[in-house]
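Table 4 source record.
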Amino acid sequence: MRKIVSNVLTVALVLCQGIQSWAQEEVSQENDTTQEEVVNAEELMMAFQKYSDSIEQTFNYQYGSVSLGNELALLQVPAGYKFLDKKQANYVLTDLWGNPEDQDSGLLGMLVKEEESPVDVSYAVEISYSEEGYIEDDDADDIDYDELLETMQQDTKSVNPERIKQGYPSVELIGWASAPFYDQENKKLHWAKELKFGDYEENTLNYNIRVLGRKGFINLNVIGDMNDLEDVKGNLDPILASVEFKTGSRYDDFNPDIDEVAAYGIGGLIAGKILAKTGVLAIILKFWKFIALGIGGAFMAFKKRLFGAKE
């Protein structure tokens, strides 16, 4: 936690803009006052909990059957999870977690564990749709996944100079956290990568699920710590079964006379590209609460707003 780089701190401060604005207002009014003592850990956690609860109360979770997109697919929210729609998921990803706005992400919503909140979450499942054409799967049985991994590791390393230039930490693809598996019958693909960002001691889990359809695929993207791997694996079957394309958008509905074919197959879908956003999302999920609590002297004003002056 102590090794958080300055660019992450900057992003995290955006997450805490409510705290920061309160602090700035108080500081401007109290320039002549004596600096107070540092808030003790218990008060900080109480403050965070109150701030967390105020955000949590704004969410409207959905359960059961949920229609995704414009009659694109049906989500049956898995037991143990709750669903946030596109608007709320976008708020979590951008305003709360500090990811850059992406109008072309195809975001459909987000799954969060039932006992958790996006404010303090172990992992979340971002659900999106990418319309890049019908993905032919005839190469699935011929892929050498060890060779593919080596290629992906080199590709990941090659983008690090640009990542660092843009203010993101370097990323290293350690290996498969779970080797790729393609369900030919149900047209569902899943695999997991173990990633290391910068100097952070704990590695990141990126679990990818793709549900193939007529004109593209639904992406269920899990970002968490490697400690979450067994939890995700234990819930993998219900998560996989939770999403199905509706009639007209299913893989078998492909019409070669009018539908476009993607420029890549299963191997290309797995190889993909390391997105800059992934780096931010992984780091924010791990650290944003602790950065929010560590703003320092400015946080004293927030404390006053919560508990009132006790002089």
